[in-house]
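ingest -> validate -> predict -> emit
validate: passed (alphabet ok, no gaps, 186 aa)
predict: started
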Amino acid sequence: MKNFRNYTLIALTAISLAACSSDDDGDIPEIINEEEVITTLNLTLQSGAETIVLTSQDLDGDGPNAPTITVSGNLDVSTVYNGTVEFLNETESPAEDITEEVEEEADEHQVFYTPSAGVDAAIAYGNFDSDNNPLGTVVTLTTGATAGTGTLTVTLRHEPTKPNDGTLSDAGGETDIQVTFPVTVE
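emit:
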């Protein structure tokens, strides 16, 4: 029984020494590219003197309050709009412009624009990553000749499959932010 107690004591001592080993040996993985906090998405569409801004603002993030979504006007039929999207973290003061990071890491991001069936519109990418794959912080939105009402969903994907066919189902990766805006083309 005395030998059993000694062996148990030795085993416990060895376990406690192993548990107290130094973390300086590099075994702890370094967190690289921590996920961004995005509270606000602004999509600005311009055609001539007309500017339409689609905004989603969610200052409490995953909190109990739903995002505030606004659209400043309706789109015109048969019109070309030059668009830019902006991602902000407004939990910081001044607000952090996440768009800069997305553009710096273009090979790890892509913005997808998905009009619903009721919206006659086509999207063309205006900026690309170093491999000439779409990024999408700059776009051209062209409305067709048919008026209608529906939605436009804007999705920022982190580490999507590139190249892809331009649809979310083929993109893979993780969604950083996704917002569905009500849209009317008249």
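The first strand starts at residue 40 and ends at 47.
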